[in-house]
Write the structure tokens for this entry.
Amino acid sequence: MTDCIFCEIVKGDIPKDFRFKDENVLAFDDIHPVAKVHVLFIPKEHIAAFENLFDDAILSSIRKGIQKIVEQNDLVGKGYKIIVNGGGGQVINHLHFHLIGPTGLHAPVV
Ligand code: 5GP
Ligand code: ZN
């Protein structure tokens, strides 16, 4: 899609270090991290929001990617959050899952 910053990242127009990559998704660091680990997982296909996601293969790829980054960063026992802003609550209209950690144990929802 034109005028989508995340589609530009998918096309390779903006150089990125990818934390995870498979046939369906890419993951890279958020430009404004709110914790030591703040990784965004996006489908390669332009999907505007979670309510427009119907492909379970994409969800499965995101699950695998998140679990990989959780393990690599030793976040089990330290707390992490997975956040998806949708329904117009998102700033970027290309679906993305935030993985944020460490957030501490028994952290509040927000
Ligand atoms: P949202 O509020 O849509 O869930 O989150 C958008 C996120 O994208 C924000 O955390 C913001 O920092 C991040 N972001 C915005 N533009 C860019 C960019 O060009 N590159 C990267 N890596 N992250 C971005
Ligand atoms: Zn896009």
Observations:
- Strands lie at 20-21, 25-29, 37-43, 81-83, 97-101.
